[in-house]
Amino acid sequence: MKHPRIEIMDTTLRDGEQTSGVSFVPHEKLMIARLLLEELKVDRVEVASARVSKGEFDAVKMICDWAARCNLLPRVEVLGFVDGHTSVDWIHATGCRVINLLCKGSLKHCNYQLQKTPEEHIEDILSVVDYANEQDMVVNVYLEDWSNGMKDSPEYVFLLMDALSRTNIRRYMLPDTLGVLNPLQVIEFMRKMVKRYPHAHFDFHAHNDYDLAVSNVLAAVLSGCKGLHTTINGLGERAGNAPLASVQAILKDHFNAITNIDESRLNDVSRVLESYSGIVIPANKPIVGENVFTQVAGVHADGDNKSNLYCNDLLPERFGRKREYALGKNSGKANIRKNLEDLGLQLDEESMRKVTARIIELGDKKELVTQEDLPYIVSDVLKHGVMEERVSLKSYIVNLAYGLKPMATLKIEINGKEYEESSSGDGQYDAFVRALRKIYKVTLGRKFPMLTNYAVTIPPGGRTDAFVQTVITWSFEDTIFRTRGLDADQTEAAIKATVKMLNIIEDEYES
Ligand SMILES: CC(=O)SCCNC(=O)CCNC(=O)[C@H](O)C(C)(C)COP(=O)(O)OP(=O)(O)OC[C@H]1O[C@@H](n2cnc3c(N)ncnc32)[C@H](O)[C@@H]1OP(=O)(O)O
């Protein structure tokens, strides 16, 4: 197969929002639609189901008003029902001009959910299609539960398709609604559809119940399907849909397929969706997971140093990311050298040996060592000032009292001068950071980094004296970096991470 052009329809804003616990407010939906269409350049977006709520109506209207201004309106779609004029009117009133009509793709759904005969259902569909066409709307149809339809009632699927293909329906969207298919079945069923209706445009819509969504999507492409439905981070009902990032990478690297996607934006958009949906991206999720471009084993770092021997086509730079080399008990000198290079530090062989031994020792104690910790470890091990401590906390008090706002007072030495400040806050750490910010912004007139993520790890087991690890991500002058604090007390751990950050930015000021 030579360079097939695959159309991507992203349904993060419809099926993705059917993830349990996920709900977007209208301005978030608009922002996501813009990211999908303008940044990622997906071909089409499905942004809602009709009739759901006033909030959904407002969101779709906002998206359509914006899309119309940018000449993108034909690429915005809304799922509608076979309900006479109701869905068409709802969608039309939002300004949207494409309806994805949810028809029943299995006899079971037709008979038992709608309680209609196939003939009655077909008549109802044709009347909605006619009405939508009268309103100058484009109609795509879903054959809901098509996968079970092909298994149990193919004659029903073909009866429906025969009737629908006599109209001007633009696309037929074939969902594996319950995620029951495997790739061999997708090939068998999709080929039957393509053979019987060679002029039809088929989209395939996968669900991930058996962890086969991405494989099934590829089987569909192999079988002549022209469009795919995806979501960001694989959001979607139950086990979710096919994740756009993985689909894009496989289409390109394994099939030479052409899509319109700007893959350099995939990671950033995934992070935005992680934040808006509240669904954390697993660290090992291909392309967008925190760890997927991190080499852990010393042997791998060594191979990369010599001739990039442990890299594949999934180069992190393609996706706006960077390869990292983890520090821990599996590190060898090569990992550590790679991290030191990034920090602009060089060590002789003997120092390297000592620092490597300390990192392995920390790793053995289950401690996470980040690149930002490295200068401290080097200083500590070599007892010289690779990392001079320019900022040190002299004393502080943080308190928590029932019915009162938490307060913090701190005394800190910065470059040999002491400063003292107090603040209240929404929590003890918030009060601490507010007091610090006053010193940096008001007293010293400097910038203070923005905290962009705060992750706490408490070892399982229910011990109240267990060590808590707090990893804080900061954004400062176009740089994103993490610092880590470890303590039996959670606030103390966060404060330790913060003081490390202050020393790092002090270095930035110096340079
Ligand atoms: C493949 C998919 O993921 S489909 C996802 C479709 N989108 C949604 O369901 C969005 C969220 N849903 C909702 O907000 C609501 O369910 C609504 C607004 C659509 C309907 O709400 P209600 O009127 O309260 O109906 P309810 O949710 O209880 O039941 C669904 C009704 O739709 C009917 N229905 C199911 N599929 C279809 C269809 N394709 N076309 C028309 N009607 C349908 C059912 O037969 C049932 O009708 P009944 O009450 O006469 O038996």
Structure description:
Helix 2 crosses helix 3. This protein has three domains: 7-277, Aldolase class I (TIM Barrel), CATH 3.20.20.70; 294-384, no CATH class; 391-507, 2-Layer Sandwich (Double Stranded RNA Binding Domain), CATH 3.30.160.270. The chain is elongated, with a radius of gyration of 28 Å. Helix 2 (54-69) links the parallel strand 2 and strand 3. The model has no long low-confidence stretch (mean pLDDT 91). It has helices spanning 26-40, 54-69, 86-94, 107-113, 118-134, 146-152, 154-164, 183-196, 213-222, 244-255, 266-277, 298-307, 333-343, 349-364, 374-382, 428-443, 490-510, and strands at residues 7-10, 44-49, 76-81, 98-104, 138-144, 171-175, 202-205, 227-230, 294-295, 324-325, 391-399, 407-414, 417-424, 450-457, 468-476, 479-487. The two termini are 54 Å apart. It has an eight-stranded parallel barrel, surrounded by six helices. It has a three-stranded antiparallel sheet with strand order 11-12-13. The chain has 511 residues and is α/β, with parallel strands linked by helices. The chain is 42% helix and 19% strand. Bound molecules: acetyl coenzyme *A (ACO). The site of acetyl coenzyme *A (ACO) has 16 residues, from strand 3.
